[in-house]
Amino acid sequence: KTAMRNKDKDTLVVIRMVKASMDQEHIDRKREINDELLIDVVNKQIKMRKDSISEFEKGGRADLVEKNKKEIDMLLVYLPEQLSLEEVTKIIDDIFLEVKPESQKDMGKVMKGAKAKLKGKADMKEVSNIIKEKLQ
């Protein structure tokens, strides 16, 4: 409503896109509309935009890169506060103490624990990279 009142078309487009994605998930996968669904959808939208940014950079489209970065900033408002790298590393260390992985084969077990504790609070791609580093 605030975006409509302020005639902020860019924010309004992003919000409507998220709402449409949530409705689509609700219909297609019979998922209940709640905060968890919102986090999943927003993370998916951010990931799509990050992929688009890398493609636009290759194509030399600085205008579209900037537009996607602004949209990512708008979407981050709807996620829980992101944890710092130190906090993420500490949580991953705690998971390592619980799971006690022995090799790369245990990556799935560690990621399962990390996803439960960090979903929506950190970039899971970054979490995956940290875990891979620690397993080597």
Overall spatial form:
globular
Order of helical and strand elements: HHHHHHH
Instruction: Point out poorly predicted stretches.
Output: none
The fraction of residues in strands falls at under 5%
Report the average pLDDT across residues. 88
Determine the fraction of residues in helical runs and give it as a percent range. Answer: over 70%
Q: How many strand units?
A: 0
Helix and strand content put the structural class at mainly alpha
> Biggest sheet, in brief?
none
Please give the radius of gyration in angstroms: 18 Å
Number of helices: 7
Spatial gap, N to C terminus: 50 Å
Key attributes of the depicted protein:
globular; mainly alpha; 136 residues; 7 helices; 76% helix
Description:
This protein has 136 residues and is mainly α. Helix content is 76%, strand content 0%. It is built from seven helices and no strands. It has helices at residues 2-5, 9-29, 35-59, 62-76, 85-99, 107-118, 124-135. Helix 3 runs antiparallel to helix 4 (62-76) and helix 6 (107-118) packs antiparallel against helix 7. The longest helix is centred in the middle third of the chain and has 25 residues, at 35-59. The N and C termini lie far apart (50 Å).
Q: Could you provide a short overview of the structure?
A:
The protein has helices at 2-5, 9-29, 35-59, 62-76, 85-99, 107-118, 124-135. By secondary structure, it is mainly α. Helix 2 (9-29) packs across helix 3, helix 3 packs antiparallel against helix 4 (62-76) and helix 6 (107-118) runs antiparallel to helix 7.
